[in-house]
Specification:
Elements: H1 2-20, E1 25-34, E2 39-42, E3 45-48, E4 54-56, E5 59-63, H2 64-70, E6 78-81, E7 86-91, E8 94-99, E9 104-107, E10 110-113, E11 119-121, E12 124-128, H3 129-135, E13 139-143, E14 148-157, E15 194-198, E16 201-208, E17 211-218, E18 227-235, E19 238-245, E20 252-260, E21 265-272, E22 278-284, E23 292-296, E24 299-305, E25 310-317, E26 323-331, E27 334-340, E28 344-352, E29 357-363, E30 370-375
């Protein structure tokens, strides 16, 4: 009888050896993240994170690279679909799929409702870590006093060098730097919604799914033909744009652009319907840039600020519909603008209210002047 029991135990042991493989070990991870900090700990080892964890709608968001690492998920099991904006994570018998902006989490084909969805932040795909961790059976704890979140996860590793978190040894399979070798980051896909500009144009773009829509105001053209409609699509890091002049549908331009600088710059070629193609660059308006629509009492201003701090634009009197051209420059918080219409007027302004208000003096002649305010 004892021989039968011994043989059975041997068979069970062999079964588990075959299941995990000769190099498989039961490993675990213990990760500690701090809100707003670019430092975190994995199995007691200090590391860097390129986008710090943040709290939104009561949930902690962390870039997918570090979520996968903390869960013991290898790079081969992290998949990004740029066209459909989906993230798929696989570990053992679990397959978890998420969509950017969607509160539906699919676990092994079963829909699970979340209170928040993944999002793009600073060019990185960020996940609500507690909800994802729980889907994989990991343990999550929150310390409000220290603003830290701890994630612990057990998994089967095929790397015998991967050390359990109870050990003081360095994890040999993940170098101690900011880019773990066993995980991959999806392509940088940024939401293009916002204000953009080229040297003489302002773009207002809205992204819905993979589709783009918006308007363009060209300050180099006469005001009557300055406005265009914008449409297009996004696929991965490739943007296709179609431009059509509002008052003359025969004037169209189309172009294909590459997204660069973490989704803040488009470089490509525009192909007009009436002439040869040309290179074109569109950049997202930076914080503090004066590009955009401004207002004073009775007038609307369209301003474009170029990289060399020059200004160009249009002014339209809302009552008389008279249009003036504008050009000027920015130096720190000082702005000089020349308005050219039925006469030429020079304005000297100071930027205030976080660069959202221009306050200064207009000089219609050498002897006359009056106070003037322009605001976003």
């Amino acid at each position: 009888m004892m021989r039968v029991i011994q043989c059975s135990l041997i068979l069970i042991a062999l079964l588990f050896c075959n299941l995990w493989g000769p190099e498989s070990v039961l490993a675990s991870t213990d990760a500690l993240f701090e809100i707003g900090s670019t430092n975190y700990y994995l199995n007691g080892s200090g590391r860097n994170i390129d986008v710090s964890p943040y709290v939104k709608d009561g949930r902690t968001f962390i870039p997918i690279l570090y979520v996968a690492e903390a869960l013991g998920i290898s790079g081969d099991n992290v998949m990004w679909d740029g066209q459909n904006k989906t993230v798929t994570l696989m570990k053992a018998d679990k397959i978890v799929k998420l969509w950017i902006g969607s509160t539906t989490l699919v676990v092994n084909g079963v829909d699970v409702n979340m209170d928040v969805g993944p999002e793009i932040s600073n060019g990185r795909t960020c996940l609500p870590i507690a909800l994802i961790a729980q889907a994989f059976g990991a343990t999550v704890s929150w310390d409000a006093a220290t603003q830290t979140i701890r994630l612990s996860s057990d998994f089967v590793s095929n790397d015998s060098n991967y050390i359990n978190s109870d050990s003081n040894q360095q994890v040999d399979s993940i170098p101690n730097d900011s880019t773990p070798s066993n995980t991959i980051e999806p392509p940088v896909i940024a939401d293009l919604t916002g204000t953009w500009h080229s040297p003489n144009s302002i773009f207002w773009i809205t992204q819905t799914g993979n589709n783009l829509s918006g308007t363009l105001h060209d300050t180099s053209q006469d005001m009557s033909s300055a406005d265009w409609s914008v449409s297009g699509t996004v696929s991965g890091n490739t943007v296709t744009l179609n431009l059509q002049k509002n008052l003359n549908s025969s004037y169209t331009e189309s172009g294909v652009f590459d997204l660069k600088e973490n989704g803040n710059r488009m470089e490509g070629t525009l192909d007009p319907s009436w002439t040869s193609s040309y290179s074109f660059v569109i950049e997202r308006v930076k914080p503090g840039d004066l590009t955009g629509i401004w207002h004073s009492q009775g007038s609307t201003f369209w301003l474009v600020q170029s990289d060399d701090d020059n200004l160009v634009g249009h002014l339209c009197n809302n009552t008389t519909k008279e249009v003036w051209n504008m050009d000027g420059n920015v130096s720190g918080d000082s702005v000089t603008i020349t308005f050219t219409g039925s006469q030429k007027i020079k304005g000297i302004f100071e930027l205030k209210n976080d660069r959202n208000l221009l306050e200064g003096t207009m000089y219609p002649s050498q002897t006359d002047s009056y106070h003037f305010v322009i605001q976003r």
